[in-house]
Amino acid sequence: MTTLLAPAPVTDQEGRGTGLRDTSALVGRTLRRTTRQLDTLLISVMLPVMLLLMFTYVFGGAIDPSGRYVDFVVPGIILLTAGYGAANTAVEMASDMTNGIIDRFRSMPIRPTGVVTGHVVASMARNAVSSALVVGAAFLVGFSPDATLLDWLGALGLVALFVLALTWVGVAVGILASGPEAASGFTFVILFLPYVSSAFVPPESMPSVLETIAAWNPVTPVTDTMRSLLLGLPLATSTWVSAVAWCAGIFLVARVAAGLLFARRR
Questions:
Q1: Residue 5 maps to a domain
Q2: What distances in angstroms separate CA 62 from CA 23, 57, 67, 198, 206, one per listed residue?
Q3: Average pLDDT in the 176-183 region?
Q4: Residue 123: inside a domain
Q5: Can you tell me the distance from the alpha carbon of 156 to that of 29, in angstroms, rounded to the nearest whole number?
Q6: Could you list the residue range(s) of the whole structural domain that residue 140 is in?
């Protein structure tokens, strides 16, 4: 007589453990792919340093003849780096959505949402390396911050929140785009934002229309907050509250949109 044994039920703890293992594996996949794409990796890491040198030595003398333009421009270069990283995330996410890998994951006993987490973690890691290189290069060309340890922690936390928000925007765009080529158009839009803000020149030096745009640009309060923290300048409460509110708002909207779009595309 054959006894039929019912499969043991999966406990919540086992389900959570499986989900963590799936997510960890997909995060590792994205990070390995990043290190194998040497051209993209080099551009992501070296482009911010090249932009720092260009703004400091080519434009810096005309903008600030005192020679201290490097102190002014470092926050802007870091935020520009975040935008470039988000644009790369959009392209890579669009590639995954259109090359059939999502369908492959659906046929496997794993959580496909780990793909999204993998792209977010990889973007944060790339931006951390790029930002560290920018700060290191800035010190070599004369960057002299007057920040305490608490100021540095505040600036790093704000940068992380800004990167996280833009990364989720990139994920949402990548899911929505019809392919990597369409998603690459996001690069222009996201990289244009810092130029019409306080990242590279004071907004009051712009024409009135652009000055108004810069005042409502979310990059402006984030840049002003970072600059005040790093250079030991007075920081208005309204400025850092606005910076955190913009970053948190963009993150929440992009996170919800990415979740809904991913569920629909699947």
A1: no
A2: 49, 9, 9, 17, 15
A3: 83
A4: yes
A5: 27
A6: 28-265
